[in-house]
Amino acid sequence: MPRRLPALVASLALLAVPSPSLGDSMLVTGGEAAGASASLNFRIIIPAVMRVMENSHPLQLTANADGALSGEQRLVVLSNLKRGFCVNLRLAVPGVDRWQLHTPPASDIILSPAGDGYRVCSARPGRYTLVLQHQFGVNTPGQQAMHWPVQTDISAI
Question: What residues pair up with 138 in beta bridges, in sequence order?
Fold first, then answer.
């Protein structure tokens, strides 16, 4: 037995050391178990987006038969803003007068004159394709061409 005693003591010592791989557990018996209650509040924030997908127009306008300069502007705007957006159009070139702007009627688009240009607004989110027909008169008689004279600014409402 003296030879076995050190081996037995070593075996018992190993059993007494806790193993790091043993998990914790708890057994609840009888009666009602302690209930857990928790609530989760999620808040999903969708960032405001207002993006001009397209703003195309001719670089240069040429005179038509009655001497007026005209061109078409295509503006595609994507917005998720609750109250919508406005596009402000104003002349960026001197020497232009008698500017007229027309767009096909649309239920969600409001076109109105504004100071030195026009204002096109939408009061709801969505994707909008605006086809704007511009016609310009010029102060210089006989002018047959001109660079695109309109500056386009967009803003949230």
Answer: 96
DSSP-derived secondary structure for the chain = -TTHHHHHHHHHHHHHSPPTTPPP-----SSPPPP----------PPP-EEEEEEE--SEEEB-TTS-EEEEEEEEEEE--TT-EEEEEEE-STTEEEEEEE----TTEEEEEETTEEEEEESS-EEEEEEEEEEEEESSTT--EEE--EEEEEEE-
pTM, rounded to two decimals: 0.66
Per-residue pLDDT of 57-109, as tens digits, reads 999 888 877 777 889 999 999 999 888 899 999 998 877 778 899 988 877 88
CATH fold group of domain 50-156? Immunoglobulin-like (2.60.40)
